[in-house]
Amino acid sequence: MSNVKNNCTLVVCSCDRYEDLWFPFFEMFSINWANCPYPVVLNTESKSFSHPKVSVKTQQLYINTATPPWARRLIETLKKIDTEYVFLTLDDFFIVEPVNQSKIDECIGYMEKDRNIGAFQFESAGYSPARTRKSGTPGDDHNPSKITGFFIKNHKRHWKCQVVPSIWRRKTLIKYLRPHESAWGWEAWGSMRARRYKEDIYGEINTDDMVYKFAFEPRMGGASAVVNGKWVVSAVDSVFKTYGIEVDYLGLGTTTIEAYSSATLNGTILKMPIPMIIKKTIGVIKSLI
Fold first, then answer.
1. pLDDT of 224 above 70
2. Which of 87, 149, 198, 217 is most buried (CB neighbours < 10 A)?
3. Strand, coil or helix: what is 134?
4. pTM score of the predicted model
5. More confident residue, 246 or 130
6. What is the pLDDT of residues 10-41, one digit of tens each?
């Protein structure tokens, strides 16, 4: 068995535009994951960042170049990392309670013993495998697991790939990605591609003792702190005040539940201009190859 502490890297996915998120993220990280044993990589285009309590590395792979798609940046970042595992999270997953490091160690231990485990996903926004169909029979998007607190995602489950705090085998994650995709495109089309692969993806059962709890807005479908490029103040303002963190919301601007609902409706394909529909259709074809 490899030395777990030396064989995992924490990757925080972000972008230069979201630099206002970095201090509050790493400030709360320094408090609620103070015992994190992994090197930390901030995946952004060209900017650097430092925090007095956290050693943060930025690879700065895209200085003076056009901004590449989300998945391409992540692939290139992962290729620069040499650990077998990566803990993947997002810049707006502000940690609100201490992270369960011992449970993370257990998960990597299971991955060390079972090479067919591709990832463990920690979904604090509320997925419950106890869901049932309208008929009252159990849903088919999960399979029972011998690992306490987790279920195995069905290989045909639509959301097998999710942008949630997760432990991945680094090479498996690279295999599941396509360079042209956005984070949300990867969730949709990556989950369809995942049907081709044999790896088991484990999801966390929704309990009070979750590994990685982050701030979110339940009235917006479990959306985290930033939606459509704007702050969801209702998700984080009280949390930031609790931690004594001051944030200038004017930089990115703010959104509301009503604006989110309207944007979701206006984002349907029937409301898109023809060039956008063509672009998205080409992207879908590329994703399914």
1. yes
2. 87
3. coil
4. 0.87
5. 246
6. 999 999 999 999 999 999 999 999 999 999 99
Residue from 20, 147, 6 nearest 81 by CA? 6
Asked if 231 and 210 count as a contact pair (C-beta separation under 8 A), the reply is no
Strand partners, 99: none
Q: Which among 92, 29, 79 is positioned nearest to 55, based on CA atoms?
A: 29
Residue among 176, 157, 180 nearest 168 (CA): 176
Residue 243, classed as helix, strand or coil, is: coil
Nearest to 187 by CA among 88, 61, 276: 88
Backbone angles phi, psi at 243, to 5 degrees: -95, 5
Model pLDDT, residue 96: 96
Which residue in this structure is represented by tokens 């960042």?
49
d(CA 38, CA 20): 23
**Structure-token pair, residue 50:** 């430092």
CA distance 106 to 129: 21
**CA–CA gap between residue 122 and residue 162 (Å, rounded):** 10
Instruction: Using alpha carbons, list the distances in angstroms from residue 238 to 24, 29, 34, 241, 281.
Output: 13, 17, 22, 5, 41
Sorting pLDDT into bands at 50, 70 and 90, what band is 142?
Answer: low
> How many other C-beta atoms can be found within 10 angstroms of the C-beta atom of residue 5?
12
Question: d(Cα 53, Cα 25) in Å, to the nearest integer?
Answer: 12
Cβ distance 190 to 243 under 8 Å? no
Supply the DSSP string of 2-31, one letter for each residue: --GGGSEEEEEE--GGGGGGHHHHHHHHHH
The more confident residue out of 170 and 278 is 170
Q: Residue 260: which pLDDT band, with cuts at 50, 70 and 90? A: confident
